[in-house]
Amino acid sequence: MITIDNLHKSFGGVEVLRGASLEIQDGEVVALIGPSGEGKSVLLKHVAGLMRPDSGRIVFNGKDIFGLGHAELMSLRSRFGFLFQNGALFDSLTVFDNVAFPLREKTRLGEKDIREKVLAELKQVGLTGAEDKYPSQLSGGMAKRAALARALVGSPQIMLFDEPTTGLDPIIVHSIHALIASTHKRFGFSGIVVSHAIPGIFAYVQKVAVLYGGVIRFVGTPKEIFETDDVVVRNFIQGSLPAETFPSREQAPPQSKANELQERAL
Question: Within 13 Å and on the Cβ side, how many CA atoms surround 42?
Fold first, then answer.
């Protein structure tokens, strides 16, 4: 379904991705994990076509997305759903209008059909009755579920989740994980989940990829990652990664600097 092939990306002369490669099969959800500041969100934005690499390819169903024309790229993006870290709901729109937004922008559905689809999706994420609320009236968990409904309402083939449980308490984290698992069964999408929620995320993904030092250092099943002989990977998932195993200052920028450079690029 998706091939990430030898991706390189620098910000202000500082390399963040150094040849990252990964394959996501049809119907497969992959957890993308690794230390903070390693470029996981940057990699996700490349897959979504929101960033262009310095070199390398993102191939979707045999087509390099960066070789597509504008119309083809827009058509491809319509097959993607993206759940941003902060939800990215429109503050001035109700929950209903937030979820309806992609249908109004990208389809020719009438308002009656849009209403049916929106209410059905809100029911699936447990937000029946919240359609007239504004984002400021929602809890963190409700906002994430509303954003998920918006991402799913167009029945995407690819779902990209950028830290879907950041800032939520453990009970809500568990509910969001369960919701992602149930929607995957319902839609059968392929997906990438960037997350630090280890090991909870391993319960519903088929594969785990570790981004470290700008490359994908490990790819395997959740069972295999616990059995790996790679000391860096094993220590990381156990929460005991020694300081000396992190990339040196010459290899990778401090997290704050990397984040600053990424934000400037966006």
Answer: 31
